[in-house]
Amino acid sequence: MTQKTNAARLLDAAGIKYDLIPYEVDENNLDAGHVAAQLGEDLDRVFKTLVLRGDKSGLFVCVVPGSTEVDLKVAAKISGNKNCEMIHVKELLPLTGYIRGGCSPIGMKKPYPIFIHESAELYDYIYISAGVRGLQIRISPADLISFVGAGVYPL
What we know:
With about 160 residues, this protein is α/β, with parallel strands linked by helices. It has helices spanning about 5-15, 30-40, 70-80, 90-95, 140-150; strands spanning about 20, 45-55, 60-65, 85, 115, 125-130, 135-140, 150-155.
């Protein structure tokens, strides 16, 4: 039996349908490519959650396909900033409650603005971290976007 994470409990409480999908963790390879290979899925369906800091707005979150890097200029513009940068990995746990390789856009310590890559809407389901390494949530992009109040953009 897969242990429920905080993200899963929040989805349960909201009555949102999802599946918890375990995968084998490689501590030396936490990237989305490894996760996609473990799941036997297209890398474009495995989304990574990135936390950035804008020069005006402070923290915000971008959820992008595993095959892409976030465009910092675009991310800054859509979030109302002139510039932005990824936060340092040491800041991730204190700011979000999550660790690298297990950061979910659902259930962070504080509600940060969330922007999701427009390609999510091309799929009937995508994967996001369940909030721990070794566990993914398979969810309808529309349900995720609605639940976290994400803006959809060409990141």
